[in-house]
Amino acid sequence: MPTSDAFSPALALTLAFAAALTLGLVLKFWLATRQIRHVARHRSDVPAPFAERIALAAHQKAADYTITKARLGLLEMALGAAVLLGWTLLGGLDVLNQALLSALGGGMWQQLALLTAFAAISGLIDLPLSLYQTFVVEERFGFNKMTWRLWLADALKGLLVGALIGLPIAALILWIMGATGPLWWLWAWCFWMGFNLLLMVVYPTFIAPLFNKFQPLEDESLKARVTALMQRCGFSAKGLFVMDGSRRSAHANAYFTGFGAAKRVVFYDTLLRQLAPGEVEAVLAHELGHFKHRHIIQRIVTMFALSLAGFALLGWLSNQVWFYTGLGVRPSISLDPTLAAAPNDALALLLFMLVVPVFTFFISPLFLQLSRRHEFQADAYAVAQASGADLSSALLKLYEDNASTLTPDPVYVKFYYSHPPATERLARMHNPSHP
């Protein structure tokens, strides 16, 4: 029988996980309630810098939308924490794993079944709130354009694409984990990074068109303006496309997609309807600023480095019995050295994906601060290459049309905002030395 010392790492992990989960939940609730109170407190008055350009009704709509989403977020947080606790310390993942072991025995099919069953159950748990967000909240504020038929078509396509791509990828990762020895994590990381780079090339051409229609930009005047901007900036793209985003939502956006020679510029049709040509040019100049400052490359390199560290950590943890037992799961370990144990690779993957976000939430402000800094740099580049007045006007239109609050709580911003609030962005545009 193991001594108490043998259980100490497992007990330490249990306590650390429980403490991090509790502290994270308390912190998230505190941040959300701060956001709700702050936005509600400033609902009655448009901030002075925007008083002449944003109507009070639009400002109040944004406040109500923000508060409604934040309140729904409180429920999502509570449900998410309860589900996470159920999967781990309360034994849900262990029950599922043992049931599949009894039904299928140990092996690749059992591991794939575990991953599939976990994904299916998690999706069903998240489904009610997701539907409420789309068909109640977004509908109430006039953003939802999704029909039930379109939602069902998207869901079926998503399941099919996920199965056709996800299952082979999962099978290969599991095979690498079991067949390539102690350094499996390095081989798995190389494969995972290669797959992600390939996906950047393949996604725009083969996957995205399954869900949306992409038509070449037909406005010759706008096309000439955008092309001239890209030439000034030394940027080339495979094409300029308009996406039928209005089929699903009234929210507007524009983005670059693809990698290398496969890069393309995509405008939501809603964006082109809401912005003047000069404003569209300014928004595109902002996106070009990210490429000019190599933000995309920096993010890819950061993703590579963090994923390498993650795979290395998983490689070590997957061989530690306390990693499983400390999180409420019984690993398949044979006490008889002549008998082969069932593989625990799928269990290790799931536990790692469940637990890591609990701890990384506390360092998220560091990465978000860097992201907001990148946005300031892209804004400055856009002002230099296009019109600052057009960029300012475009941002205000997008904030208004997307019902983004102009008065977020400053502390909440640090934990959740990848983009600076409107007040900070416009102040920096008009005064680059503004802190």
From TrEMBL:
Residues 216-431 form the Peptidase M48 domain. InterPro entries: CAXX_Prtase_1, Peptidase_M48, Peptidase_M48_N. Coiled coil: none annotated. Pfam families: Peptidase_M48, Peptidase_M48_N. Gene3D superfamilies: Metalloproteases ('zincins'), catalytic domain. Residues 35-213 form the CAAX prenyl protease 1 N-terminal domain. Its cofactor is Zn(2+). Keywords: Hydrolase, Membrane, Metal-binding, Metalloprotease, Protease, Transmembrane, Transmembrane helix, Zinc. Binds 1 zinc ion per subunit. The chain crosses the membrane at residues 6-31, 74-93, 113-137, 158-178, 184-206, 300-318, 346-368. Belongs to the peptidase M48 family. This is M48 family metallopeptidase. It comes from Acidovorax facilis.
